[in-house]
Design the sequence.
């Protein structure tokens, strides 16, 4: 009887430890997220399930073109692409991104640009025209959705404070047929 009690206790202990580890990993390191909407099309699709790396920016800085998840003002989490880092001058002119006066290629938009016949995919703008600032403020990011015509992003909601960033995401794990690493 004592041996059976001891074995039961060991199983219970193992289950509690497993649940605590899984909860800790989910809360502090990785978390699942569901893409809602089409603002990141064609890169991400509505209802794609992804993994968010929550420690990516605890140990490093965001990089241009990272796909991030952040807490938006509306109490929702948004998924967008980092375009501007602190101190950057951002401008769109003739459907081309300029950062600090230098043109940048955005290969993830190439297919979408080919399908647009009634104007540019991304309307021309400068940060100063949008927000009265020449550069992205310190401690903030400027983000855009890949579906530029239908994305609520920094052009509409402003700069994203770094403390609102949940983490970086690049792994789609569901649906299984679309599982991939996105860039």
Sequence:
């Amino acid at each position: 009887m004592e041996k059976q009690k001891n074995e039961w206790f060991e199983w219970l202990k193992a289950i509690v430890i497993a649940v605590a580890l899984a909860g800790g990993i989910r809360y502090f390191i990785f978390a699942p997220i569901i893409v809602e909407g089409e603002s990141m099309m064609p890169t991400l699709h509505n209802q794609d399930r992804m993994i968010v790396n929550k420690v990516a920016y605890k140990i490093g800085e965001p990089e241009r073109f990272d796909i991030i998840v952040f807490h938006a003002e509306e109490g929702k989490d948004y998924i967008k692409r980092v375009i501007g880092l602190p101190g950057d001058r951002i401008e769109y002119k003739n459907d081309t991104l300029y950062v600090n006066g230098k043109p940048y290629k955005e290969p993830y938009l190439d297919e979408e640009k080919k399908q647009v016949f009634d104007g540019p995919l991304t309307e021309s703008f400068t940060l100063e025209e949008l927000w009265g600032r020449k550069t992205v403020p310190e401690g903030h990011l400027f983000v855009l959705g890949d579906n530029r015509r239908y994305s609520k992003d920094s052009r509409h909601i402003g700069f994203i404070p770094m403390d609102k960033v949940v983490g970086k995401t690049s792994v789609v794990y569901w649906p299984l047929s679309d599982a991939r690493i996105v860039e």
In short: The helical segments are 2-29, 56-59, 110-114, 127-131, 154-157. The first strand starts at residue 30 and ends at 34.
